[in-house]
Design goal:
The complex is a heterotrimer of chains A (100), B (172) and C (415). Chain A is an all-alpha fold and 100 residues long. The model of chain A has no long low-confidence stretch (mean pLDDT 89). Chain B is mainly α and 172 residues long. Among the domains of chain B are: 80 residues, Up-down Bundle (Four Helix Bundle (Hemerythrin (Met), subunit A)); 40 residues. Chain B has 8 helices and no strands. Chain B starts with a helix and ends in a 5-residue tail after the last helix. About 6% of the residues of chain B have low confidence. Chain C is an all-alpha fold and 415 residues long. Classes of the chains: A mainly alpha (100), B mainly alpha (172), C mainly alpha (415). The interface between A and B is large, with 70 and 81 residues.
């Protein structure tokens, strides 16, 4: 039996790495992928708690998170395609028309 | 070290390597491939915990649909290597420190409350397979959680419509 | 030394048996792949009134060996400007995934009992067996998409994008068309799905299969599954992304020698997997179609092998080349001897054991023949026709199948 603490520690590490990727990358698609990484880390925590408590609610919630992530990825990538078409760049630092 | 612990460490190392690959690779396609490695490793971890249906759904939906969408968009938009813009080193260093601090804070909270995990877990002799038969999971989804289920199907319909409208090219 | 070895073996028996099974199954699958290419070339040739390969060995039987050697010795050209890691990863991914999918297919109901260990005729029998196969199919899109993109050339890129879009579209119809079978069998486990088909009306085996029996016969489901599976494996009539007159060779244009062979093997292996799945899900797997009371059908393997062996011997002694005159009678003799051996009363336990795999292999052969038959006869779909067929016809039909099956299952179930 692997202790639950190990799973939660791994989830925290993955979440932290996702935050790092979100802050430091400049390609908008990579930033999007770091959001997916953070969602995955949270899913891992849910399943770990579900296994520890014997309650299936955690796994049901994981399924809902996966579904919502799919919907979000679809709409988000539609927006990314629009940005790429209008500004001809995928670098978030160049999409700064609203900057003072 | 039992076999389960060994498998856990291998899969955990694989997922952390994939996440590091996501950060440090220069081309978005390589980052996408690293993320796929993370997802497959996580599916393995779900299998280790006995959540077999969630593991299968993770690979089919996340690894086989969402990441395929990412990969196809990267290919279509011809995303090249990351540009080298000047990031101020002075701002980068505290940034990394803060992110590590966030991770450390979460880990410390977890370690401090490790005792209460034992309370949640109760008897630690839960056999992995009995936890999540697909039948029990589907009973929960279609009986207890039927309203969120219908709402998410509606949400996906809206997302499909939204994606089509957003990416539609006007015939000018 | 001997007792150390036997102690080691008995302590780790499960792992060693599984490793041996994996090696054996890999060998068998790769050989079947090789001779499937021979089978396809011969059948398509005969449909087109010509002979196909008939020079390399008797009746062209050495042709796969010659092809394999050719692939090994060809120049391995890597085009300039490719992304090296992804270019090398794509065929590995395609081949690895295709071969992994054979691991969960059960080939027979009874285990071989050896030294007190039960050796089952599958490598793994997880309770979500069918979902594992779908997961592998879902990951198979990457092999194609990455191959097309990494080749740094416009034809493979277009072919790869078209092919991956086609595969994702037909994956939905593929998964939904199986839900009817799942509703009737109440389990994802392939062995249990076959067991649910083993209670036929009036004891006639054929009437128990999913395609004719149960609360709702799965004819629509089978049609959707078979068509969607052909589109998934990129075969005619859905092979526009790799058609020669359209896109040079599609996503594997820039691949040469062994990497191309890996894509080739991956395609034929997924053909075999789909045929296995069709026969397991809809046609009863290892169950025989005859009534249970007709126990004389146990001699059917012998009844097929002995005339086949005699015919091969007769053909062999009249063959043109000396090599054929030697090899063909030997093959025919082996077949005939196996056939006679199975009919002997001393080897009846082997005969009873072999009934399950015999029927499953027969059904797999029938489906492979249908695949090759379609290759020889049908023209290919245009890309927009392909996509509208998948989304506008196949997906609604599979959803209708799910709804009807659920309705009839509910009607027939005792509350």
């Amino acid at each position: 039996m692997v202790p639950t603490t190990y799973y939660i520690a791994l989830s925290a590490v993955l979440f932290g790495l996702g935050v790092l990727a979100f802050i430091f990358k400049r390609n908008i698609i990579t930033i999007f992928m770091s959001i997916e990484l953070m969602l995955n880390a949270v899913n891992l925590a849910f399943v770990a708690f579900s296994q520890a408590s014997g309650n299936l609610d955690g796994q049901v919630f994981v399924l809902f998170v996966i579904i919502v992530a799919a919907a979000e990825a679809a709409v988000g990538l539609g927006i990314v395609i629009l940005i790429a078409r209008n500004r001809q760049t995928l670098n978030v630092e160049r999409v700064d028309l609203l900057k003072l | 070290m039992s076999a389960q612990l060994l498998v856990f460490f291998v899969l955990a190392a694989l997922s952390v390597i994939g996440a590091l690959g996501l950060i440090f690779q220069k081309h978005p396609i390589h980052s996408a491939l690293s993320l796929i490695v993370v997802m497959v490793a996580l599916a393995g971890l779900y299998l280790l915990m006995g959540a077999e249906f969630v593991a299968a759904v993770q690979i089919i939906v996340y690894g086989g649909a969402i990441m395929v969408l990412f990969v196809i968009v990267i290919m279509l938009l011809n995303a090249g290597l990351e540009e080298h813009t000047s990031i101020s080193k002075m701002a980068g260093f505290p940034g990394i420190l803060l992110a590590l601090a966030l991770t450390g804070f979460i880990a410390a909270t977890v370690a401090r409350s490790a005792g209460s995990f034992a309370q949640i877990a109760g008897d630690n002799g839960r056999i992995a397979g009995t936890l999540s038969s697909t039948r029990d999971l589907s009973t929960m989804i279609f009986k207890t959680f039927v309203y969120p289920f219908e709402l998410t199907s509606f949400l996906i319909l809206i997302a499909i419509l939204g994606a089509i409208v957003l990416a539609h090219r006007e015939k000018s | 030394m001997i007792d150390f070895l036997s102690a080691f073996l008995s302590a780790h028996a499960v792992i060693i048996i599984t490793l041996i099974k994996i090696v054996l199954l890999l060998f068998i699958v790769l050989t079947v792949n090789a001779y499937l290419t021979w089978f396809e070339r011969k059948v398509v040739a005969h449909m087109q009134s010509r002979w196909g390969p008939h020079r390399v060995g008797p009746h062209g039987l050495m042709q796969p060996l010659a092809d394999g050697l050719k692939f090994l010795f060809k120049e391995d050209a890597m085009p300039a400007g490719v992304d090296k890691f992804v270019y090398l990863l794509a065929p590995l991914l395609a081949l690895g995934l295709a071969l992994t999918s054979i691991a969960v297919i059960p080939f027979g109901p009874n285990p071989i009992v050896l030294f007190g260990h039960n050796i089952w005729l599958y490598i793994a029998n997880p309770s979500i067996g069918l979902l594992v196969l779908f997961a592998i199919t879902a990951l198979g899109v990457y092999g194609v998409a990455l191959a097309g993109w990494s080749s740094n050339s416009k034809y493979p890129l277009l072919g790869g994008l078209r092919s991956s879009a086609q595969m994702i579209s037909y994956e939905l119809a593929l998964t939904l068309s199986v839900v009817g079978v799942l509703l009737m069998a109440n389990s994802f486990n392939l062995t249990e799905i076959i067991d649910k088909q083993s209670h036929p009306a009036w004891g006639i085996g054929l009437l128990g299969w999913n395609i004719v029996s149960g609360p709702f016969p799965q004819i629509l489901g089978f049609f959707c599954f078979f068509v969607a599976a052909i589109a998934e494996t990129n075969r005619v009539p859905f092979d526009l992304p790799e058609a020669e007159s359209e896109l040079v060779a599609g996503f594997h244009t820039e691949y040469s020698s062994f990497k191309f062979a890996m894509f080739f093997i991956a395609e034929y292996t997924s053909m075999i997997t789909v045929s296995c799945l069709c026969s397991i899900l809809f046609f009863g797997g290892w169950l025989s179609p005859f009534p249970h009371s007709w126990t004389f059908t146990f001699y059917l393997p012998s009844l097929l092998l002995i005339p086949a062996g005699v015919w091969v011997i007769w053909d062999g002694v009249r063959y043109e080349t000396i090599w054929g005159k030697l090899v063909l009678p030997v093959i025919g003799g082996v077949l005939a001897i196996i056939g006679i051996a199975l009919a002997l009363p001393q080897l009846q336990f082997v005969n009873v054991f072999i009934q399950g795999p015999f029927w499953l292999l027969g059904k797999i052969l029938v489906f492979l023949f249908v695949y090759v038959w379609m290759r020889g006869t049908l023209p290919r779909f245009r890309y927009d026709q392909l996509m509208s067929f998948g989304w506008k016809l196949l997906l609604p039909v599979s959803i209708v199948n799910v709804v009807l099956t659920a309705f009839f299952v509910l009607l027939r179930s005792n509350p």
